[in-house]
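Regression report. Comparing outputs from two consecutive submissions.

Submission 1:
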Amino acid sequence: SRRDFVRASALGALLAGAGTMPWWRQLMGLKRPKTKASSRGAGDELPTAQSLASEPKRKSAETDVNPSGLLKVEVGAVATDQAGDQVVLLIDRKEKKILPIWIGPAEAFAIAMALSGKKPLRPLTHDLLNTVIKALDGKVVRVIVVRMKEHTYYANIVLKRGKQVKTIDARPSDSIALALRAKAPIYLTPEVQQFMEPVTPKRRLKRT
């Protein structure tokens, strides 16, 4: 539809200015596995280790030691596969591994907007959520992709207000979009880490 075309064009324009173009170009041929691992609700080449290492690091609000057993990752890019579906890439720069999670177009737009550093004329849903948390004297401590069940990833948002700490169940896509706005770190549990793939030339995504 015309609305979908406009949304796709806007997403492409955002990605072009988000500092993720090297990823975008190399992932245009990415195929969505038949038994995909997606955000709740055989592929082509992945980025090379060289391009992975060249991407700039993004600062987070938390700089302490990783919680026990968790792996800290970064949002490498948002890309589109051959079917036109969006995928967010979480990367471990040290081990040069990647975790692709297929997400919806609205969430892809929200993540791409945060990566680009551009601000909408009016707050998006994740901007509003971040503002509300701050207004209530709260803080997004971290986001954790905790498990995968029936080819779907699940995540937790850890919030802190004073001495109170709350863990909220959420989709990885929404969690990532919020974490980028709150400058909060993103982690993977050991259960999820096993689905990461090495980033090497000619590497193909494994079906999960």
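Submission 2:
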Amino acid sequence: NATSMTCSKTPCGSRHERSVTNDFHPLSHLCESQPNRFLCANCRTLVHCVMGQALVRQCTEDFYCTDKLGLGGAVCYPNEPAECMCLRPNEFRVDPYDPQRFFSCETAGSQPESYKCPDGKKFDENSAQCVNQIGFPECVKSGTFANTQNCGEYYSCIPLRHGWLQKFLMCSGNHLFNERTKTCEDPCTLKFVCQQEGRFPDPLNM
């Protein structure tokens, strides 16, 4: 008996009775229609799928979830994989197993600090922010803005009482969205007019 630290004649419950989570566990969807197997839910979470349900284990410090074919699937393993570790200072990295999760690195070799984007969002390493699953940044102020990853796409942000209403739009043809005029324009007809003295990038060849 693990509680009283004494020997007991009462048999222990089965592994299924003691450890397997119910159908409503947040990670149970990973095991739907899956054979019994070990897999990684994220860099720090190992999941054992048993009869379609999730048995969850958190990896300890300096151990990360990684696939090891020689060990029968995913295991918590020391200092692997590199995608889950801090290799450079002042860096934000997406979790290789779950695009909704990301981690920050203070220094090379430091312990990753894990975070999770809101539902419906994923982490974009290029912009170091949570974006919509289709690649648009989340709203932080009202207005209409170009998608910095593709200027042929743009979105509007309308403040609501609780959060934002975000609409996604696309320019026709080869037109690009101009945030200054708030219209889709043909970039080949753009005429640049100097507004002030200085050096500026060519708007037709960024």
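Expected: both submissions complete independently.
Actual: both completed, but the second showed a warning that disappeared on reload.
Relevant detail on submission 2: Residues 1-5, 12-24 have pLDDT under 50 and may be disordered.
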